[in-house]
Amino acid sequence: MIEFIASLVPANLAAHSPALLVAVPMLMAPLAAFMPNGRLAWLMSIFATGFSLIMAMVLVTQVRSIEGGAIISYAMGGWVPDAGIEFRIDALNSMVLLLVSSIGFLAAIFSWPTVKAEIRDAKRAMFFATYLVCFCGLTGVASTGDAFNLFVFLEISSLATYALVALGASRDRRALPAAGNYLLMGTIGASFFVVGVGFLYAATGTLNMAELAVRLQGVPDNKAVLAGFAFITVGLGIKAAMFPLHQWLPNAYAYSPSFVTMFLAATATKVAIYALVRFLFTVFGLEFAFEGSTLIWILMPMGIAAMIACSFQAVFQTDVRRTLAYSSVAQVGYMLLGISIGTAAGVSAGMFHLVNHALIKGALFMALAGVVLTYQGTSLNDLKGLGRTSPWTMSAFAIAAVSLIGVPLTAGFQSKYALVNALFEHGWWWAVAVVMFSSLLAVVYMGRMLEAIFFRAPSNPNKRRQEAPLLILVPLWILAIANLWVGIQGGFVAGLADDAAAALFIGGAS
Predict the structure, then answer these.
(1) Could you state, in order of their start, the residue ranges of all structural domains in the chain?
(2) Cβ atoms 229, 283 nearer than 8 A
(3) What is the mean predicted confidence (pLDDT) over 127-149?
(4) Which of 42, 66, 229, 325 is deepest in the core (most CB within 10 A)?
(5) pLDDT one-digit tens code per residue, 428-449
(6) Main-chain phi, psi angles of 87, to 5 degrees
(7) Can you give the pLDDT at residue 440?
(8) How many CB atoms lie within 10 A of CB 15?
(9) What b/e sequence results for 256-265 when a residue is b if at least 16 CB atoms lie within 10 Å of its CB, and e otherwise?
């Protein structure tokens, strides 16, 4: 299907797909802001994200068209790297771009009912404009081959995100302090990152990431490089909600507008993890990141701690959004554990889980948005009996819930199985026990929700049957079916993850 859609794109348009994927949402954002009403701005967001999705399909097709994977270098403005800014696409970021643009397109379709209910009419056009700015920033991070340009796009997406979170204040005043905390932590993370990039520039005299990788080989013990490595790891760790740098995330997810929570949960931390992986493997290289600086003693313990501590925190939450927020940090731990193995199989498993977790959390938060819209509640008590009053919405929620747990025939099982295999191959049998224990905790906190939904009587006996609007149900079920499709026939996504890992290990260890 992807190859067929990509084949319909004219060659002269496909040649500029790396730039158009980012530029079209960027250019549409100010136009959306000046729309006379929110509905027109919403339609523009659908068009812009849909166009970016098609361009991402083109890039995936182009990269996979050559055995071993191709690298697409696009010089912005005709300025040859490293004198100019380069967009550099390989199997890793083409996969991330396809994920972000797919989720962004489905999120844009789903957004209108929730935005109409939660955002005042006068602010809706600006809301969708801000969303497009955020989307543009995330795709820019995943596209650029320039370290400072990555910082710029990271800040573009972050500044837009702070505003989107704060707009939840019209529904819950706690969104304002949540946005403030997010702003504070995000600013610290961005500052650490740009300082780290500055150290690398001082040591090498370039900001192009491909050229950085070459020049850093000649200065492995340079103190500026070591400092840059530390600053970049911490900065991106904050952005990725790496334990214990995740304190901004629970409140940001719990009090944001429903649409914002869904989009951020499925994309924001995933793009930050991509950036972290890009620097670890492409810029610094496997030997430096996992031997010279013993990163294995940072990533792996943080991943393990997240899987256990945040899963326990999720068990004791009564608000479903906060439960899923802590669960997200725990799932980031799975990804970091796979990456910390430092093998192609481990990185592939980590990236596979990254994609699957986006499908899972996208569906869960989309279903919760339907609950908020129809029943105005997100506590565990509010879920009671919804299996009877909203069977279609809650059935999709249940599919995503069992996928999060890792039940066979779901996406979550496939990526956890790949992770367990990679751990056994590396001899980390004890880490397999941690994965199993964390999954059992997921059974507890997701099981409580499923029990309330399907086996408890409604807390309000007068609750009438009411499904989420069709604009929510359609993208929700696309994500739910995707969880089943990847669980039963996951070869395509697993292949993307394998290609992504292979792109990082060209010329390196496996």
Answers:
(1) 297-505
(2) no
(3) 93
(4) 325
(5) 899 999 999 999 999 999 999 9
(6) -95, 125
(7) 94
(8) 15
(9) bbbbbbbbbb
